Amino acid sequence: MTGMQRINPNNWRLSVAPMMDWTDRHCRYFHRLLSPNARLYTEMVTSAALVRGKQLRLLEHSQQEHPVALQLGGSDPQELAQAARHGAEAGYDEINLNVGCPSDRVQSGRFGACLMREPVLVGDCVKAMRDAVSVPVTVKCRIGVDDQDDYADLQHFTETMLEAGVEVLVVHARKAWLQGLSPKENREIPPLDYQRVYRLKREFPQLVVVINGGITTVDAVREHLTQVDGVMLGRAAYHDPYVLARVEHALYGVPLPARESVLQHMRPYVEAELARGTALKHISRHILGLYQSEPGARGFRRVLSEGAHREGAGWALIEQAMAPMLAAA
Predict the structure, then answer these.
(1) Residues spanned by CATH 3.20.20.70 within the chain?
(2) Confidence (pLDDT) at 2
(3) Residues with Cβ within 8 Å of residue 10, at least 6 apart in sequence
(4) Would the pTM of this model clear 0.90, i.e. be above it?
(5) What CATH number should be reported for the domain whose range is 9-252?
(6) What is the location of CATH 1.20.120.1460 in the chain?
(7) Which of 109, 134, 227, 307 could connect to 2 by a Cys-Cys bridge, CB 3.0–4.6 Å?
(8) Helices in the chain by DSSP H: which ranges?
(9) Helix 119-132 to helix 77-89 angle, to the nearest 10 degrees?
(10) Active-site residue (options: 101, 114, 125, 141)
């Protein structure tokens, strides 16, 4: 390790959650145009895919995405260390360990939320990763799993993380039920307990605490920031991505961009990707929510959804979808 970077809590003030099947490199490029300051996260990449599968293509990203973090899933300290090294060498600004995903597939691999029951193992993973890289190694967890109803469980987990050298903890303010609920249900059914995360920050003031879960508005972001260091937006940032621009405006004074301007800034990226063989549908699916709640939004989505999968679909389709929005502006 070449010496850890000094942690600046402000670097985690606003972030977009790692979301499987959603926060790929195309999505992150789009989100960066809406939010110059947010910290962006990859979808979870398993350490096995990078180390044993040698799928280093999963690390591809553009320079415009920074600051961007690689989220890893796994439970073997040495394998995670090697995967973290690959991530740091690829240029990621942070390596984040997933201790929050509740899916059956993840549990069968002994990583994700089930690791909250094994804080010592998580600590060993973190230590190995920190020894391997100089960028920050962070952890994203839940407030508990299954029958972990006591704050003491989260407290013990956090103490173990601190001992392992964790300086940034991202906490999804819901428990995860590992049996009986689907991943989707686990994002919606267990009740949110923001107070438990606030208490964690009060009791561990030296820790950068980022709160995640059910946060959808600028006012909510502001409220949480009176109690914790950072806010991580999840599904709201995907389904209504312009909320990122609103939060940027509120927190950093960044002028609100016109949605059409954001799309025009996407054009060089889209055309470059099309030229290298990327199908438009892989990019356009991430921009469907840009006009959420605006007049004409349904028509915008329909043009893109119906046309993007067709052979030869290109930038002209996005212009076609935009035209009625520009006329109504």
Answers:
(1) 9-252
(2) 39
(3) none
(4) yes
(5) 3.20.20.70
(6) 259-328
(7) 134
(8) 25-34, 47-51, 77-89, 104-108, 119-132, 151-164, 183-186, 194-203, 218-224, 235-239, 242-252, 259-275, 281-284, 297-307, 315-328
(9) 40
(10) 101
pLDDT for 1: 42
Phi/psi-derived region of residue 182, left when phi > 0, alpha when psi is between -120 and 50, beta in every other case: beta
The per-residue b/e assignment along 118-151, b for 16 or more CB within 10 angstroms, e otherwise, is bbebbbbbbbbbbebbebbbbbbbbbbbbebeeb
Residue 145's SS3 state is strand
- Topology classification of domain 259-328: Four Helix Bundle (Hemerythrin (Met), subunit A) (1.20.120)
Task: Compute mean pLDDT per 10 residues along the chain, 329 residues long, and list them.
Answer: 67 97 97 98 96 94 97 96 98 96 63 88 98 98 86 96 97 86 72 96 98 97 98 97 98 97 98 97 98 95 97 96 86
Q: Are 204 and 185 in contact (CB under 8 A)?
A: no
Nearest to 176 by CA among 195, 196, 216, 148: 148
What are the tokens at 159? 């103490």
**Is-catalytic flag, 125?**
no
Using CA atoms of 210, 144, 78, 23 in order, give the dihedral in degrees to the nearest 10: -50
The C-alpha angle 22, 23, 28, rounded to 5 degrees, equals 135
* Confidence at residue 329, expressed as pLDDT on a 0 to 100 scale: 67
Q: What is the spatial distance between Cα 108 and Cα 98, in angstroms, rounded to a whole number?
A: 14
Q: Left if phi > 0, otherwise alpha if psi is -120 to 50, otherwise beta: which for 306?
A: alpha
